Amino acid sequence: MTKRELRGKFQRKLRRLYRQPMIHSLRTDLRIDSCGLLAPDINLAHCNNLRDKEYQLIANSGASVSITPAVEMNMGHGFPVTRELLEYGVRPSLGVDTVNTIEGDMFTQMKLALSIEHALRNQQIFIAGQEPEKLDLTTRDVLEFATIEGARALGLDKKVGTLTPGKEADILLIRYTDLNLTPIIIL
């Protein structure tokens, strides 16, 4: 069976089960690529502990990656690979996995993704004997990971993911004076 035939068979089978196929990936991307299965309509989860070549394969293929900060930190996968993905031009989406043991809300995932990345980056800067001046990853980036990047990963970005005329949206209003949202800076 050729790679093209294998990919077609794989895609047809997955399409019967899922709108957008997802592959849990810790060290399998070379094998997935060798079967011709890395493609823009494939979403990979986690992707911890990959080599540079594997990140490059993901970037070249156009496949999306969902990171799950709470699960990755608590289940021994390692740190989320936000920085590595961004260095290869892959903007991750945020996900929640294993909700019976980990917080299932996206606010926790956004907060963890931002905090972990800032801590890792700041540690590198401190080791180099410098002080952090600017944080590379912003709250806007992380909000996009949870919204439009999630929609792209699922092939739904034409329908949802941004507040755009013609798109569907749920709007959530948050009272910034609640204690769990401090500290907050109002500009």
UniProtKB/TrEMBL annotation:
| SUPFAM superfamilies linked | Metallo-dependent hydrolases
Q: Which domain of life is it from?
A: Bacteria
Q: Report domain Amidohydrolase-related positions.
A: 38-175
Q: Does the entry feature the keyword Cytoplasm, yes or no? A: no
Q: Which InterPro entries match?
A: Amidohydro-rel (IPR006680), Metal-dep_hydrolase_composite (IPR011059), Metal_Hydrolase (IPR032466), Metallo-dep_hydrolases (IPR051607)
Q: What keyword terms does UniProt attach to this protein?
A: Hydrolase, Metal-binding, Zinc
Its protein name is Amidohydrolase family protein
Cofactor requirements of the protein: Zn(2+)
Fetch the Pfam families from UniProt. Answer: Amidohydro_1
Cytoplasm in keyword set: no
